Amino acid sequence: MAAFRTLDAKPLKKKLKDEFRFFRNWLDSPLTLGAISPSGPELARRIASLVPVRPDGRYLELGPGTGVVTQAIFDRGITQPQLTALEYTSEFCRMLRDRFPRMTTIQGDAYALRETLETAMPVQNGMFAGIVSGLPLFTQPVEKRKALILDALDLCESGAPYIQFSYAMVPPVKPEPGVLNLDKTGWIFANLPPARVWVYRKP
């Protein structure tokens, strides 16, 4: 007689609830989210694979949303106390605090990065070993995108990455000799819509 495996409905239920929350918040503020659903697991794993893991490192995630990439970062071996999450949407902040209670979650505007972080912690240049961003940068003027990335890299250690995904053919900010270096992954076609990851560093 064939054996049948009992499927656990909890992960599917959680995923559907997260997608509903994400879509509802997108309807309320489409320019804040930039997509109608959270990042897929393959994209989340690819992003997390680019984070340099160090037991003494501190990390920052911008625009974590429902926490799909956040969980992938923890699966890489980074602990909750090592990660600070900066999220604009109040509902997502409540969700993140519930799911990751030992992670520092800050509600605020990533485009006022230093000022927002200073509401919750001391801030200094070179404090982060890496920054991951799920912000929809293409909803902002290119000057504002560039200012954010440069501000974020000021807060990173020398050589540490600012990791950004997007659905576009072109990078959110072009590389600039002596100012901004850029690497990229191939397309992640398993994600809907297909996405790629851009990795910025200061020279």
UniProtKB/TrEMBL annotation:
Gene3D superfamilies found in the cross-reference section: Vaccinia Virus protein VP39 (3.40.50.150)
Gene Ontology BP annotations: methylation
Organism superkingdom: Bacteria
Keyword terms: Methyltransferase, RNA-binding, S-adenosyl-L-methionine, Transferase
GO molecular function, a single term: methyltransferase activity
Name listed for the protein in its UniProt record: Phospholipid methyltransferase
